[in-house]
Every structure is written in structure tokens, then in C-alpha cells.
Amino acid sequence: MRYLPHTQDDIESMLKVTGHASLDDLFAGIPDHLKTKQGIDIPESLSEWELNAHMEQLASLNIACKDYKCFLGAGSYDHYIPAIIPYLISRSEFMTAYTPYQPEVSQGTLQGIYEFQTMITELLGMDIATASHYDCGTALAEACLIALRKNHTDNKIAVSSLVHPSHRQIIQTYIHPAGYEMVEIPYTKEGLTDVVALEKMEGIAGVAVQSPNFFGNIEDLKAFKTTADTKNILFIMSFTEALAYGLLKNPGSLGADLVAGEGQSLGIAKSFGGPGLGLLAGTQKQMRNLPGRLIGKTKDANGADGFVLTLATREQHIRREKASSNICSNNGLNAMTAAMYLATVGKTGIREIALQNHDKAEYLKKSLMNSDFTPAFSTPFFNEFVMKAPDGFEKKRKALIQDKCIFAGMNLEPYYPELKQHYLFCATETISKCDIDHLVKEVQS
Q1: Fewest Cβ atoms nearer than 10 Å: which of 175, 248, 299, 385?
Q2: Where would I find the H helices in 371-445?
Q3: How many Å apart are CA 100 and CA 199, to the nearest integer?
Q4: pLDDT in tens, 395-435
Q5: 333-346 per-position pLDDT tens digit
């Protein structure tokens, strides 16, 4: 999009319409202490070639993960992306970030999202899925709002302290202005959410638990479902690693009412933390409570299959006061990417990738144990886990980043102050045995 600045004649004609004599009059409502007195320090303009050189110089300051060995997870995971995916998704027919509203000219895109919804429900074992959301955090916040709105007496939502820290912040941002409250469920010494603490909580409209949780541990979801049913509240399950369900039982089989997760692992590059892909699915009972859009399949006047925007419970389509959300635009391009990835690798491929993730993480854990690291928990995990590091590791970890191009785990203390010297490690199918052996050798040196 070109930037076309206003000429002085443009400005004067607009001021005439608004009834102001000058731009200062137009902005008179802004307090003086909030106005800049020196103006904005904008550099001189650059030529096209100078600008390209400047941008390349700035880009060189970033760290490219392809040049580093990354043992980080925590909600963003490094996975192989089949070469067919970038090629297909870059085609102009798919290059849109939005759900189309005109079915007569958008059948291909609508069918792609319909297939995406179908595959997500199959992966998660749920009845229905939306056309996607921004990321896991926003999808999870929307799920919490559903539980709060359905319950007309209780205004609290119980959220596990092992839900991703950033996602808990997003939930708080969503629900606090509406007069709701989030209460955190503590975790046990096994690195699992304390279901006994949940049983003692009163006045809650729903419960949200992540599995695998932020420590990588696999939660006992059946126990939370039983407690939720006893309290007659909605059970919300979240996840950050979608490929875990190539190996684990899916949330639907364990009784989840709503599932909110991150789909970045499904063929989407990490891209310095974004964009993500928010997955949101539910049982048939929750269909009309789900925010966003649902693509449906129908028949046209000639009896041929057709795809349409079936439900859209947002303020652009229904009365604002009846809308379930007004900030739940879907990540259409990433949803299409995920659909292509799932169709490419198939059920067998997803299971094989999941097995590689688990087995390599197991090997990494055992290797670190031989290097004076101590497992924080003995609980089963998927592809990431917590280790207590030996004294002096933080200094060595920084040196590994700078000198050896290795990201050796994530420090958990900023998020869980009680876990000093504890680090979250991750291994996916992109990490080889040689990579792990090299990491251990550097740690021991």
C-alpha cells in the first residue's frame, strides 16, 4: 500500500469540514503535557538500495534458528515442514488471512477451512471446531468466557498454574474488564495440577487445565473431568503442542467440554514467536456458544456440494450485545497451512513424528542425568521436561549461546520463582542424537 501524505490544501479542506482553524485547534482536547514539544525525530529518507542495505544490517542482528541448535520449547516448537507446504500456501489463491464472506467466489478457500475444521475435530476427538483464532492464548481466553457466561451465578474461572504463563495473562486481560476473576490452581511436587485443591474451590464456573502442561508433564485429565462434573462446571482443556495427540489420548475421549490449543506445530514456522494458530473445539452442546466462524457444507440449487459461512457469532453479523466475541478474527492462512500439513503427513505420519519427539526427549533427559542434572519430576512427559542444573550452569548456558550456537534450555525462575536453577528442555524430530551428544559434551567441558 502506498503512503500518500496530505498536501496543505488537503489539510485545509478537511479542517474546513471539521470546523477548526488549524491542526492545533483540532488537537486542543489533548492535554499539553501529553504533546511532544520537539516534534518527532525521523531520519532523512533513504533510496531503495540504501533502505535494503539498512534492513539487511538490522536483520543480521537477529539470531536465525537454522544456524543454532535449539533445545527450547515452552509453547513454540521446531518441527520439519514438508517442502510442499511453503510452495502450496504461497499460491495467490490461498494468500489471505481472512475468512471469505462471499461463498459464490470463495469455494476453494471455504472448502479448505472446512477440511481444516474436520481434521482438527478428528485430531482432538471433538464434535465441532471453529475456523481458528489468533493463537492458543486467545482461544483459551474465549473458552473461559464461554464457561463464565453460561454460569449465571459464579464469576470465577479456575486455571491451572501450569497453563502457559503468557496464556494466563491473556485470560486475565480478557475477563477482568468484564467483572470476572481468575483463580489459579497450585501444582504438586510431581509437577501436576493439584486436583484436590480444585475440589475445595467454590464459586467457579469452569476449570482450565493444560496437558502436556508447561513443564511438559501429562495431566490426569479424567480426574479433572470427574471433579468438573461433580461441580456441574465446564471442563476446558488446553495444549501448546498439537503433535502430542499423535501419541496421547485425545481430549474428547477424556471428556473435555472445550479444547483450546496452539497449532503452530502443524507446518507453521516459529518466526520469532508468531504468528500462531489458535485451535478451539467443543462438543455439540457448545456449538452456538463458540465464538468466531464455522464453515458448513450444503447443497446448491442444482444439488451440487457447496461451502458457506454457517455460523458467525460476532458483532459484524449479529447484534453487538448478542455477539460472543468481537476480537476473534481467524488466522485463515495459518489454518490452511495446518490443513495442508495434516493432509500431507496423515495419521501414520503424525504418530511417527510424535514417537520421535518423545523418544528423543527421553534420550536427552537420560544424557543430562549423566551430566549432574537432576530431574525435577518423575511424571511421564511428551517432548519437554524440567531439570535442576548443577551450580554454575547459567553462566555456561550463556556461553553456549554466544560461542557454540546452542540454546540449552529455558530458565524457569522468572515464571516460577521457587524453581531456582531449574530449566525446561525440549527435543523434537529436528534434534539428532549427534546434537544431543554434542550438547552433553559441551555441558561437561
Answers
A1: 299
A2: 393-399, 433-444
A3: 44
A4: 999 999 999 999 999 999 999 999 999 999 999 999 999 99
A5: 899 999 999 999 99
